[in-house]
Amino acid sequence: MSDRPILEMTGIRKTFPGVVALDGVDFRLFPGEVHALMGENGAGKSTLIKVLTGVYGIDGGDVRLAGEPVHFAGPLQAQQAGVSTVYQEVNLCPNLSVAENVCIGREPRRLGRIRWAAMRRRAADLLAGLDLDLDVSAPLHSYSLAIQQMVAIARAVDPAAAPATRPQPEASGRGSRVLILDEPTSSLDASEVARLFEVIRRLKRDGVAILFVSHFLDQVYEIADRMTVLRNGTLIGEYRTAELPQMELVTKMIGKELTVLERLDDQTRHAAAPGEPIVAAHGLGRTGAVAPFDLTIRGGEIVGLAGLLGSGRTEVARLLYGADRPDSGRVEIDGRPVTLRAPRTAMHHGIAFSSENRRTEGIIGELSVRENIVLALQAARGWARPVPRRRQDELVARYVKALDIRPADPEIPVRNLSGGNQQKVLLARWLITEPRLLIVDEPTRGIDVGAKAEIQKLLVELAGGGMAVLFVSAELEEVLRLSHKIEVLRDRRLVEEIENTDGVDADRIMQTIASGATP
Amino acid sequence: MTALTRHRLFWPAVVLVLLLVSNVFFAPRFFSITLQDGHLYGSLIDVLRSSTPLVLVALGMTVVIATGGIDLSVGSVMAIAGALACLMIGDLPDQGSVGGVLLAVVAAVGLAAVLGIWNGVLVTVIGIQPIIATLILMVAGRGIAQLLTDGQIINVSSPPFRMIGAGYFLTLPVSVLIVAAVVVAAALLTRRSALGVLVEAVGASPTASRLAGIRARGLTIMAYVFAAVCAAVAGLIFSSNVASADSNAAGNLIELDAILAVVIGGTALTGGRFSLAGSVLGAVLISALDITTYTIGIPAETTLLFKAVVVVVLCLSQSAAFRAVVFRRRTVGASA
Asked: Which residues are listed as membrane-spanning (chain B) (predicted)?
């Protein structure tokens, strides 16, 4: 770690109509360090990154790269100066090959013609550097989200990203001098995270400055050397990781003591008084998605779906909502057989589904917070019976308050909200339809501790009120904390149902995930 | 003031005013409106009257574009509506019969609705891309219109039919009143019911809309029906105005002007948020542009070029990025 910062941002100010996103924020990044940017949703982390990479212009302050003032007009310029970003949601072209995705925009050429063989070789080399052995000619979408994330990182660390024509005293011959990883681990499982961290450490040794954003505190403590904490667009401080205990960090991030999390634990484990079965699936399955399974969900019960990435969790959820058509089995609601032909049918039977892809399958970015919240209710009523405006305002005001959606202006487009607040909008959309079964797929992915605890608490309260909840999450801890009953999936097959009693812990579930059904 | 200049219709409105004002230098009486025989006359009235078919077609196009589609067949539907109406009126024993004319109008609009369903079904049920699906009717439609009229131009002399495009009521042209009524009805229908927001949801994100339980298919078909019906009314106005059905001239290339009007009005071609008021403004602007080329005496062979230049300027004026560049240069120049 050198003593001169490679990147220095001072007094950064950025406003959006009606919102001050960043208010005089300072940020320093040294070569050869991993620096975590911490804060709740809406604290300004993403905005700071977008300002740094030239996605947004700034309204005040200045940015210096290696001592020189810079002003990037866009991500491409930033990349050419050696500032690369890997975003939370993979921003690649799924229909192009892996090699094309790694090299797009900087393909090896001869006489203006792309040298395909050289391109594939380079992509394969870069991926080999990350311990990945892929068919680089295969289209990107044929790989899991986790692999796609690694491809995005390979692309970001490609030395060709910063052309050799620019002299780079700090790291000559290398690609990025600054690598920004925005929630890189949110879709990776434990072993993939370990692999990613190896890559990060290697880059760090090479003198790359790494800006790391993650909501997994354990990961931050494992990998980061220093951290900068933001809250509501203002700078709280810059700390050495070793000198800031975890609880203190959380307190700084949310500005108040965090006690909700511990409370929840005992509430669910013992308050299990499930009512009548609401939804029962018998031999429900879909070829290529998930093998036929039986599942009963009772009123007042939270059923957790556990399993590795790609084990069929989402597929189970989608079948129960009619988002995909089953090709075997049947579903009973209140003991009566029903055919879930489409989401609309499931909705009429009181089933709600919040997708894991909230940006593409959940919220509708250009519509306002109010319109997004009322959407499902309005769809159920049909176009000819609009929800009266006064009733809309009442409902929206109630849920904006209850879920603490920020900013609390219901008329701004929902795309201007942070990820956690978008998730809350999506939950509000379903809650106002007063569902009997709420299916939530990864509702806490990529959102901060405070909002996460709030959403968990909300689910427990809803179940307490008699609602059935199907809770899907990659985080075992979370599934254990909330669920009355845990369904374990492995290789697209439901292998075991575990009552979540006192003896059950993560190890017990991991065992099933690793080995299939226990003997 | 900034709130005003930031409004997305501010710059199109400015261009419209500039266009109208520029006419005064060539036709000093451009802004004067006179009352003659209980009819209002004047260039401004002409602008409104000549814009009526385009306003209607642009209105329907807006809703289709909002669903994420496009309708290329509107010009052909205009031709078919005009042909059918003139055919039926020509067969009337008494062309002055109001009932007969009404029946012809209803038949033309009804046929257009069927054609709209055809477009909508091709797009939603069969799953053909909108541009291809409506291209079918765009090409076939002119053929249908010519079949109806046996390839001839049918002339009619029916006073009630003539009212639609050339008549006056309460000093105003009937066509302008019809269009105003359709605009108001469309605005009420989309914004007072939930149609508007549901269509926007479907256009902005079909997947998310499906998971939210929106019945996209019905909404999309309705949008194509609305576009076809608007086109039919436009076709009736056009053919009434010339008292004949000309299957080649009616609505020729109007789909392109309509798409342009929609874009000028601030509705994105990718679907989602739409603005009916914007499209109306866009359509009036395009008509004003046509009239301006005549008043200021642009040679006929360069009319299209002149139009293109104005459109480019207009698009640039609407681009925030372009304005930023212009303004930055100006402030730098001032401080230097």
From this structure: 9-27, 47-65, 96-118, 125-145, 165-189, 219-238, 250-269, 276-298, 304-326
Residue B98 lies in a domain: yes
Q: Residue A273: what pLDDT?
A: 61
Task: Kindly list the residues from chain A whose CB atom is less than 8 angstroms away from the CB atom of residue B7.
Answer: none
3-class DSSP state of A322: coil
Nearest CA distance, A53 vs chain B (angstrom)? 18
Residues on chain A touching B219 (C-beta within 8 angstroms):
383
Indicate whether A380 and A447 sit together in one domain: no
Does pTM top 0.90 for this prediction? no
First to last CA, chain B: 27
What is the distance in angstroms between the Cα of B268 and the nearest Cα belonging to chain A? 11
Tracing tokens 């400015």 back to the chain, one arrives at B14
ipTM computed for the complex:
0.83
**Block residue for tokens 């909508």:** B120
Amino acid at B230: C
Query: CA nearest B208 in A: which residue?
Result: A361
Distance CA A438, CA A350 (A): 8
Domain count, chain B: 1
In a domain, residue A279? The reply is yes
The whole-chain average pLDDT of chain B stands at 88
- Residue A102, in any domain of the structure: no
Q: Which domain holds residue A305?
A: 259-350+435-519
Q: Is the dihedral of CA A448, B207, A309, A508 positive or negative?
A: positive
By C-alpha distance, the chain A residue nearest B201 is A364
CA distance A482 to chain B (A): 25
> pLDDT value at position A173?
41
In this prediction, residue B262 carries a pLDDT of 93
User: Do A440 and A423 share a structural domain?
Assistant: no
Work out how many domains chain A is built from and give that number: 3
Q: Average pLDDT of B97-107?
A: 92
Q: Same domain for A321 and A274?
A: yes
The one-letter code for the residue type at B100 is G
For residue A251, being part of any structural domain is answered with no
Return d(Cα B193, Cα B154) in angstroms, integer: 41
Token representation of residue A104: 């797009």
Residues lower than pLDDT 70 in chain A = 1-2, 41, 88-90, 159-176, 187, 256-274, 309-310, 514-519
| Domain shared by A493 and A508, yes or no | yes
Which chain A residues contact residue B321 at CB under 8 A? none
Range of the structural domain that residue B241 is part of: 7-297
